[in-house]
């Protein structure tokens, strides 16, 4: 096992009615930036519940954070946060709103061009504290320090990360997810699944507990994912999807083991250039990437096949093929297509995608740093 340090500062407030716990966790003399997306919370009643919970507390609202949050929109919110001198950001929504809140938190007291935080890893001081009310289980953003920001103008989608931005608390009320359209439930389950894979499907380092945590989350997602599509208001099903997605990327399962993240980095370019939903990009890239990296990932692919999908017959090559197919079939069973052509992206677009990877410095991806531009091209061609 590799060395690691581990701390997760996010207090999880899980279950029905937990929103009422929020006021007690805000700073004294709180002035809260209440940040949300395109209005789903106004349709499903979450907005009213938040307003009621925050009664008597000074609140400044900022609506309109879009999926794949836009730098321009977030900078508008930064200006509002500076002018109104808020001292806390409450993000109510999915990964986009929570990621957006983290960027705003980092940018508020930053002197200079805030885009440098994303492109140059510029350091920032005194970020505002963030809290999250999650409405879409998927990204794990509610209990990690990551944020991904998009800039349409330059066709870039870039991640940054800091422990200091990790939400102080996260309300996980499964009832808040009942209103999700099927497409977003599918996205969430696939995203969480791939988060686990990025931290599991590398090479063995004698970390059996991390492996079994990871396999347990994968098995749970395979079990409850399809049920969540069929039974949108089943509390227990939604609760198990929600907790699985949080556990998939709250840092725990990735401690002491190598991590990959190449599927994500290649996927980000597909969103930046073609506007595909985040999880859709992952479902396209991962099976092809497993195929191209089958030698480097051999031991773990065989382990995934046997322990998660029950594939224990045949030669190693046959079992690897069957395991890749099982992953692909799972995505398809969640109604997420796995080829570029399913989204009318022609093979001729691959040059552009590879050029964007190069521009963003994504030239040595994966746990061995061996996914260069040629390999990325091979992966995308296989996924065409
Ligand atoms: O904008 P609103 O009105 O809120 O509607 C959203 C949005 O249209 C809707 N939605 C959310 N909760 C709902 C709901 N609709 C009905 N009922 C509800 N309860 O769903 C749509 C998608 O929301 P979004 O927040 O964009 O989805 P998701 O949570 O999948 O977040 C995706 C973003 O997170 C980033 C992705 O790159 C992408 O930008 N990621 C963040 C990560 C992290 N912070 O660790 C890791 C991930 O790998 C990912 O990269
Ligand atoms: Zn993801």
From TrEMBL:
Fe-containing alcohol dehydrogenase-like C-terminal domain residues: 188-355
Positions of the Alcohol dehydrogenase iron-type/glycerol dehydrogenase GldA domain: 10-174
Gene Ontology CC: cytosol
UniProt keyword Oxidoreductase, yes or no: yes
Family assignment from sequence similarity: Belongs to the iron-containing alcohol dehydrogenase family.
PANTHER family: ALCOHOL DEHYDROGENASE YQHD
Protein's name according to its UniProt entry: Iron-containing alcohol dehydrogenase
Species of the source: Alteromonas aestuariivivens
